[in-house]
Amino acid sequence: MGGTPARGNNSRKDDACARRREELLSAAAKVFARSGYPGTEVQEIAAACGLAKGTVYLYFPSKEELFLATVDRAMIRLCHHVRETCAGIDDPLDRLAAAVRSYFAFFQSNPEIAELLIIERAEYRDRKTPTYLEHKRENTKDWQEVYAGLIRDGRFRAVPVERISRVVSDLLYGTMFTNHFSGGQRTPNEQARDVLDILFEGLLTPAERETRASRERATVPAEQT
């Protein structure tokens, strides 16, 4: 009985620390995105939260650790947003389509996160694995299982799931940054529509696919001799 109030106090203290940390990371994302890494002063982030500069260092020992934690938080938010959007969608193709739309919608609503990824690449070129790629790698297995299921069900061609993952990831990443650099002129739905159309339907008509396949079959003996 005597220990219960202490545990309650510790829990409230932990909750308060977590909220303060989240507040600092949220403010840091906006300041770093606006001012860049070299141009950002920790004092500016502290002021945005109504805190003294020293308080920031109680949570993050250096500006570098604060920045990297900010990027990590951004990627955790992205992954959570996509998973939450896809929850409860049974059909794997519908789930994939929802994931693509939610990916673009996330960056449309949080353009500062695209800037954080650019800054990380510029300032930490020697990092073995950028934060974006680290989180992508952690989530790749789940999507590869989805692709494998679609192949087993005869809904996807028998393409190696690693190849599918790589192409889909590159399409999303490249499309997101192109739209970001152009000022976000295309909506998330427009971006998703184009990516999904090419991904699901391809470019060649069935007749042209057969023509090319026949041509390739005809050249095999010549190449082998």
TrEMBL record:
GO terms for molecular function: DNA-binding transcription factor activity; transcription cis-regulatory region binding. Residues 18-78 form the HTH tetR-type domain. PROSITE patterns: HTH_TETR_2. InterPro entries: Homeodomain-like_sf (IPR009057), HTH-type_TetR-like_transc_reg (IPR050109), HTH_TetR (IPR001647), KstR2_TetR_C (IPR041490), Tet_transcr_reg_TetR-rel_C_sf (IPR036271). Residues 41-60 bind DNA. Keywords: DNA-binding, Transcription, Transcription regulation. This is Transcriptional regulator, AcrR family. It comes from Frigoriglobus tundricola. The lineage of its organism: Bacteria, Pseudomonadati, Planctomycetota, Planctomycetia, Gemmatales.
